[in-house]
Amino acid sequence: MSPRRAAVLRGAGDGQNLREHLIATAERLISSRGTAALTVREIAREAGVADGVLYNYFDGKEDLLANAVAAHVRTIQAGLGELPRPGEGDLAENLRTHVRYGIALHRALLSFMAGLRPESEAVSRFTGLVGPDTNWRDELLRYLHAERDLGRLAPDAPVEAAAAMIVGVCHELVLTLLLPDGAHAGIFAPPPDAGDVVTVILDGMRPRGDGEPR
Prior knowledge:
By secondary structure, the chain is an all-alpha fold. The chain has 2 domains: about 5-60, Homeodomain-like (Arc Repressor Mutant, subunit A, Orthogonal Bundle), CATH 1.10.10.60; about 60-200, Orthogonal Bundle (Tetracycline Repressor, domain 2), CATH 1.10.357. The chain is about 60% helix and about 0% strand. It has helices at about 5-10, 20-35, 40-45, 60-80, 90-115, 120-130, 135-150, 160-180, 195-200. Residues about 10-15 and about 180-190 have low confidence and may be disordered.
């Protein structure tokens, strides 16, 4: 794409302004080759603009990378579909959906962010754009609170602990994949089945009948 063509993207007729074009270009490059050693010059060349144009829209490469990763997360979430609504459907199946959603989100996010140092400015900016755990944890916690308020969970159900357990399954997956091949073999098992996770959690949160031991 020529610089002239990229400039045309500022027009509303394309449905995409130059800033969005740069984010989409960076997202595509990260998806195909990762973030390691990716330079402003390479992004600019792929976008069809001069190197300095990026600094008209972003503070620098780290800012652009953070926006590209955030855009990718939104793409992932759109592809995963809607999360269940409180009070609707089967409670256990709803929680299984949450577990599968979280695992899929973390798998995709980890592969996309490979090469970014955890302490890098890009990661810090990314977290500011989408929130911790890309807001899925907050959505899960809201769901559990709502189900408890509706009486589908016990009045004293420890929903914060349940959310931490579900999120922990996803974080264990991330930690396992971050380890070099062969390192600490056998310490981390594959993520458990979503149904098993939900069974363990619900046993402690379902409403009990009168006289039924807790």
